[in-house]
Amino acid sequence: MGVLMLRCVMTGREFSTGIETSETDIQKLPDVITSSHCPHCKLGHRWWTHEARIVNAIRPSDWIENKP
Fold first, then answer.
1. Is residue 65 in some structural domain?
2. How many structural domains compose the chain?
């Protein structure tokens, strides 16, 4: 299992989506648009499934849940 990460288009900084999944499971998903709130720029970002990357572990301070 890993955490889906995105890159903020405004700041270039990564943030967690709060979604835990495996590489196998994400490959089974259709490439759809999803929204996540960015803690860096405070805006909502729309992203395609293929734009997220999975990391196996992140520091607890970097774990930012997907909050509206």
1. no
2. 1
* Strand-pair partners of 16: 5
Q: CA-CA distance, 28 to 6, in Å (whole number)? A: 19
CB 26 within 8 A of CB 17: no
User: 65: which 2 tokens?
Assistant: 């849940």
Q: Give kind and range of the element (H or E) at residue 27.
A: helix 23-28
**What is the pTM (predicted TM-score) of this model?**
0.76
Show the domain range for 34.
Answer: 2-58
Q: Is the distance from CB of 6 to CB of 18 less than 8 angstroms?
A: no
> How do residues 28-54 score in pLDDT, each as one tens digit?
888 999 999 999 999 999 999 999 999
Which amino acid belongs to residue 68?
P
